């Protein structure tokens, strides 16, 4: 496979996963803002921080008026994270990115997966999406999630399981690793700093699990009190949950091993593969939580930094990026 095609495959997977993750996070936060006894900025500010759009939001929105009022404006946050074409993590830009990359490799992506991606793109560009967002946000976010999940499922069930699918799924897994680590880091810090009633605290942690589609798996495995330690341990180290950090990193390592076997010394990508192996070992050793004096924040920061560095290294070694 030539590097240009591999690059489109990789980013197609990343953009699909990013669109779904953003829609899921916004839907869970909207529910949290309505049900929990939290100040509006305590609900909505973490969404902007997780996405890495804090500086842009401050420049565009918070600068117009009082900071606290702006950070607590859920409508403005959702507008930015959904429709801002200049934001690298907005749903609109992610869907456009997924569609553009899929269109560039139409001879690689299956017809069914292409149709699902294109239908979502057409929906986002039409009036029905704007109407749903204005009047029925839950339905809007549900449609985005369903459409991206449909496309991801069709990729695995209608394509040859060859290098093209490996690159697509490698993009999905590395994006998911970063998203899970970012969301857990910001919310874990915010929730543990709050002094709230036990019922409210439980609702906060369950909302975090729902934002990562982990509510039902967590409750099946942990049939007891919902605590910060239990939630963090589950989202970091549960090998059977497909959105946990441990599962995503291990699966990404397996995918890259298929693309670039470790015994093929002459092939490019050796440094990236080794870095991913080291990250896999790091996460495996911390399946039950941080080690020694390490904090959850330090653990998750390392995962975010390393997953980003691995994507950059992968681009230089295998995808032809500069």
Written description of the protein model:
- The protein is mainly α.
- It has one domain.
- It has helices at residues 3-35, 40-51, 54-60, 67-71, 74-83, 91-104, 111-124, 127-135, 137-158, 163-193, 198-211, 215-221, 228-237, 245-259, 270-284, 296-319.
- α8 packs across α9.
- The longest helix is centred in the N-terminal third of the chain and has 33 residues, at 3-35.
Helices, strands, pairings?
Blueprint: H1 3-35, H2 40-51, H3 54-60, H4 67-71, H5 74-83, H6 91-104, H7 111-124, H8 127-135, H9 137-158, H10 163-193, H11 198-211, H12 215-221, H13 228-237, H14 245-259, H15 270-284, H16 296-319
Helix pairs in contact: 1-2, 1-5, 1-6, 1-9, 1-10, 1-11, 2-10, 6-7, 7-9, 8-9, 10-11, 10-13, 10-14, 10-16, 14-15, 15-16
The helical percent reads: over 70%
- How far is the N terminus from the C terminus? 19 Å
Question: How many E strands?
Answer: 0
Low-confidence stretches: none
How many separate domains? 1
What is the N-to-C succession of helices and strands? HHHHHHHHHHHHHHHH
Strand content: under 5%
Count of DSSP-assigned helices: 16
Structural class by SSE content: mainly alpha
Average pLDDT across residues?
88
Overall, the morphology is globular
Rg: 20 Å
* Main β sheet profile: none
């Amino acid at each position: 496979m030539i590097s240009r095609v591999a690059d489109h495959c990789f980013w197609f997977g990343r953009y699909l996963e990013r669109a779904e993750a953003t829609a899921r996070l916004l839907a869970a936060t909207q529910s949290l803002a309505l049900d929990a006894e939290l100040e509006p900025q305590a609900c909505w500010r973490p969404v902007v921080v997780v996405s890495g759009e804090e500086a842009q939001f401050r420049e565009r929105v918070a600068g117009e008026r009082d900071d606290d009022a702006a950070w607590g404006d859920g409508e403005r946050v959702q507008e930015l994270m959904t429709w801002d074409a200049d934001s690298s993590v907005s749903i609109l830009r992610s869907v456009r990115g997924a569609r553009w990359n899929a269109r560039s490799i139409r001879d690689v992506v299956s017809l069914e997966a292409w149709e699902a991606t294109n239908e979502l793109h057409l929906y986002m560009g039409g009036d029905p999406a704007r109407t749903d967002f204005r009047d029925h946000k839950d339905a809007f976010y549900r449609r985005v999630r369903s459409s991206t999940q449909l496309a991801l499922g069709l990729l695995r069930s209608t394509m040859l399981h060859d290098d093209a699918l490996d690159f697509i799924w490698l993009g999905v897994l590395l994006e998911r690793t970063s998203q899970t680590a970012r969301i857990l880091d910001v919310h874990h810090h915010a929730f543990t700093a709050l002094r709230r009633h036990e019922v409210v605290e439980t609702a906060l942690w369950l909302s975090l699990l729902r934002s990562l589609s982990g509510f039902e798996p967590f409750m099946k495995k942990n049939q007891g009190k919902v605590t910060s330690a239990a939630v963090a341990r589950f989202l970091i180290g549960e090998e059977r949950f497909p959105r946990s950090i441990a599962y995503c990193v291990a699966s990404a390592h397996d995918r890259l091993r298929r693309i670039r076997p470790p015994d093929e010394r002459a092939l490019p990508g050796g440094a990236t593969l080794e870095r991913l192996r080291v990250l896999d070992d790091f996460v495996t050793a911390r399946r039950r939580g941080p080690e020694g004096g390490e904090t959850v924040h330090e653990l998750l920061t390392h995962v975010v930094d390393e997953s980003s560095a691995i994507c950059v290294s992968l681009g230089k070694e295998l995808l032809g990026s500069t």
